[in-house]
Design a protein that fits this description.
heterodimer; A: about 300 residues; mainly alpha; 16 helices; 2 strands; globular; disordered N terminus; B: about 325 residues; MetI-like fold; disordered C terminus
């Protein structure tokens, strides 16, 4: 607090006009600490604490896990890999990871393929009723899986794909295609139509235009849609819970929740290890493509 | 000779084919085909099938017959169903208000010039990216009756003398679930609203300040109206996904203690899949539709109306 006078003079330099609040230089440091840094620190603590707790629990031996009086629960005295070891070698966890990966990748590619074609047709070919189709696709995104899973379960059974990865690969696109199409429509609209007109005059076919002009320019959009679709598939729960019954076919979220609890015995260490390892692939992907996530999140909302 | 003729005889056909393919209408149909067939088969058809199933007594492994409104009549006299409706409305309302209040606050904080701003924004979004079920398991452990870290900390601080039974008491369990949902929802709201805040020109605030507006007035008359379009869409999505939430409840309480925390979605699952009563489950799921349509229309048009009044062009 003592350095407040000094920062007051330094502040205008630190807040150029590009700063979105514009008038931040009017604030003094003590005021900033109370109105900005302290609330922000509390927000960050609350938002991140469950992950810290997940990590700490994963590496704790059992005697520390269930004995708070002799060990400070916030820290680990003797870190151990026993929980991860148990998870990887005594459960079907590797199979769940593989299933989730296969389902997420396949559903993502299927959805992106269908969405690119649909979004291109709606925004560029401008067929009769294209606007209506665009609106219907947006409405399809508003149909929640919680309403669809019961009839879908009977369909999946009738099609003979119950308890296989196909049940998930074919049903995940129901929420991925509307999202990806909507996102890609926005990207395609932002590409100048003049480029395509030039190509049309030069005698290119529509397929050539899509393949050689529109798609290369829409690569950021494709990446955004792809990683978001992958994340949504990885996180999906209700379909995977309803359509899969045998342990070795399950996905990570379902497997961790249903297979690691034996009766009333909760193996908290292994449960947390499963949660941590299951989160890692998405977290790593996220760390590489933060900007794409943010743009697809906000892009889908902004239309 | 034949080898020379062959390409000549093929190329006109290919040319015709590519000309047909290049016709916008033909191409549109072909391009729409994959998306349309998947959505019609796995989204539109099950939506109708679900509504139909609600009028039948279909069970797992046994085709049902049409029984009219029987499922709905039995639900009407079913206390657990009405409790789940109450829970769903409570959960949606309270969680949405908290998510938007706190999310807007966080967005306003992040809109300041901050050191490591991009990094902070990136880690803020983590709860949204991490699979809900997996973070829900962490909450399950945080809410544990014997080993809750919250109880332990509060006891150490001398604020409580007995561990809180987070998930064993109906009201505690409801608030605990709402807290977990808010925790997961804040980043989504905050990052979306932050994107909206960043499009507001600083000159508007300066003009308002020169006209003598104080901080609250600047927020009320500049920030809020400018945020309204994006706010209405984020609100619509948030209400929709909170209302139909399933995984958080299923992971943390499975509707317990004694059905006290069932939402309509978890009750539908409970009755349909483990219970085998597909028809009754479908009826519960169908009963969500009117609420959903109302909530969506309300949150979308309720806020959009302001935009029309201001005469903004339809984007």
């Amino acid at each position: 607090m003592t350095e407040a006078p000094m920062t007051e003079t330094a502040k205008p330099v630190a807040a150029p006009m590009a700063d979105s609040t514009g008038m931040a230089y009017l604030e003094t440091l003590p005021r900033r600490v109370i109105t900005l840094y302290i609330p922000l620190a509390i927000f960050l603590f609350v938002l991140l604490f469950p992950f810290y707790w997940m990590g700490v629990t994963t590496f704790k031996p059992n005697d520390e896990l269930y004995n708070f009086s002799e060990h400070n629960p916030f820290w680990i005295s003797n870190p151990t890999f026993a929980n991860i070891n148990k998870l990887l070698f005594q459960t079907d966890y590797p199979a769940w990871l593989l299933n989730t990966m296969v389902v997420a990748v396949a559903a993502t590619f299927l959805s992106i393929f269908a969405s690119v074609l649909a979004a291109y047709a709606i925004t560029r070919l401008r067929f009769k009723g294209a606007q209506t189709v665009g609106l219907l696709i947006f409405l399809a995104y508003l149909v929640p899986p919680s309403i669809l899973f019961i009839p879908l379960a009977t369909m999946v059974f009738a099609l003979g794909i119950y308890d296989t990865s196909w049940a998930l690969i074919l049903t995940y696109p129901t929420f991925l295609i509307p999202f990806c199409t909507w996102l890609l429509m926005g990207y395609f609209k932002s590409i100048p139509y003049e480029l395509e007109e030039c190509a049309l005059i030069d005698g290119a076919t529509r397929l050539q235009i899509l393949w050689k002009i529109t798609l290369p320019l829409a690569v950021p959009g494709l990446i955004s849609a792809g990683i978001f679709a992958f994340t949504l598939s990885w996180n999906e729960f209700i379909y995977a819970l309803a359509f899969i019954s045998s342990s070795e076919q399950k996905t990570v979220p379902v497997g961790v929740l249903t297979q690691l609890v034996e009766g009333d015995v909760y193996h908290w260490g292994a449960l947390m290890a499963g949660a941590l390892l299951g989160s890692l692939p998405v977290a790593i992907l996220y760390s590489f493509f933060v900007e794409h996530y943010v743009s697809s999140l906000t892009g889908a909302v902004k239309e | 000779m034949a080898t020379v003729l062959k390409p000549q005889s093929v190329s006109p056909r290919l040319a015709t084919l590519s000309r047909i393919l290049d016709h916008p209408t033909v191409l549109s149909v072909i391009f729409m085909l994959p998306a349309a067939s998947i959505l019609l088969l796995f989204l539109t058809y099950p939506l109708g099938l679900g509504i139909w199933m609600g009028f039948t007594d279909v069970r797992i492994g046994r085709p049902g017959v049409f029984i009219g409104l029987e499922n709905y009549i039995s639900l009407w006299y079913d206390g657990v169903f009405w409790l789940s409706v109450f829970n769903t409305l409570l959960y949606t309302t309270v969680a949405t208000v908290l998510k938007f209040g706190l999310g807007l606050w966080l967005a306003l904080l992040l809109n300041h010039s901050l050191p490591f701003k991009a990094f902070i924004r990136a880690i803020v979004l983590l709860p949204y990216i991490i699979p809900t079920v997996l973070s829900a398991i962490a909450f399950w452990w945080i809410y544990d009756a014997q080993f809750s870290i919250i109880s332990w900390s509060l006891e150490r601080l001398g604020l409580i003398d007995r561990y809180i039974d987070f998930l064993g008491d109906p009201w505690n369990a409801r608030w605990s679930l709402i807290a977990a949902n808010v925790w997961r929802g804040i980043p989504f709201v905050a990052i979306c609203l932050l994107a909206g805040l960043q499009t507001i020109s600083p000159s508007l605030y300066e003009a308002a300040a020169l006209d003598g507006a104080n901080a609250w007035q600047r927020f009320r008359h500049v920030t809020v109206p400018m945020l309204m379009p994006i706010l209405s869409i984020v609100l619509t999505f948030s209400v929709l996904f909170t209302f139909t939430d399933f995984q958080l409840i299923y992971a943390i309480t499975r509707g317990g203690p004694m059905n006290a925390t069932h939402l309509m979605a978890t009750l539908a699952f409970q009755r349909a899949i483990p219970g085998g009563q597909l028809g009754e489950g479908a009826a519960i799921a169908t009963a969500m539709i009117p609420f959903l349509v109302f909530a969506t229309v309300f949150s979308y048009y309720g806020l959009q109306r302001r935009k029309w009044q201001q005469g903004a062009a339809d984007d």
